[in-house]
Amino acid sequence: MAVQKDHWYNRALLILLSSLTVSVQQTDGVTTVKLEEGMVLVCVCPWEGNLTMVSWTKLIRFNKVPIAVYHPEYEVFISQSYQTRIQFLKTTPMDGSITITNVTQEDTGVYHCSVQTFPRGSWARDISVEEDDADQEETDIHIREPERSPGERSEFKHDQLN
Predict the structure, then answer these.
(1) pLDDT (tens digit, 9 = 90+) per residue, 100-141?
(2) Strand order in the sheet with 98-100
(3) Which of 34, 79, 123, 149 is the most buried (most CB within 10 A)?
């Protein structure tokens, strides 16, 4: 009789655990986007369901700072610094993607999108916004010292700075 009781307990535990995994947050890895005017940060939940909320945060000095929230009933909240620059695209029922306009270098960094759905729970994506390599190389050109031939002495006068 003890064998049947253990078997029933294990089966019930397995069913309980499998139902709990439905609400565990699933992520889709980190995506990289180049910093550019009108850039789109794509956040489309891959499954069907009812979208209950989309939230966007940006990682600033190890803190996730809220920048935008979309709720089908309460509409949109956008933080002050992004107020006129963020728009939710909502091209499909499970689309939480945003576009950012009037971009500056301050817009580089890691963004986190979280889509809350019913009945499957939440899905998230991290997006790293980086400067275009060509822009970075142009900046590096202005910072680097000129290359010298081996044995060539550097003659740099203080007057040359003015």
Answers:
(1) 999 999 999 999 999 999 999 999 999 999 998 765 555 444
(2) 39-41, 98-100, 86-88
(3) 123
The helix (run of H) or strand (run of E) holding residue 119 is none
**Maximum alpha-carbon separation in the chain:** 96
* pTM to 2 decimal places: 0.67
- The C-alpha atoms of residue 98 and residue 105 are separated, in whole angstroms, by 18
Domains and CATH numbers, the chain: 30-142 (2.60.40.10)
Total count of residues recorded for the chain = 162
Dihedral (CA of 69, 73, 74, 78) sign? positive
Using CA atoms, how far apart are residues 121 and 73, in angstroms rounded to an integer?
A: 18
The CA distance from 72 to 50, in Å, is: 10
Joined together, the tokens standing for residue 130 give: 């980086």
67 closest CA partner among 22, 122, 109, 23: 109
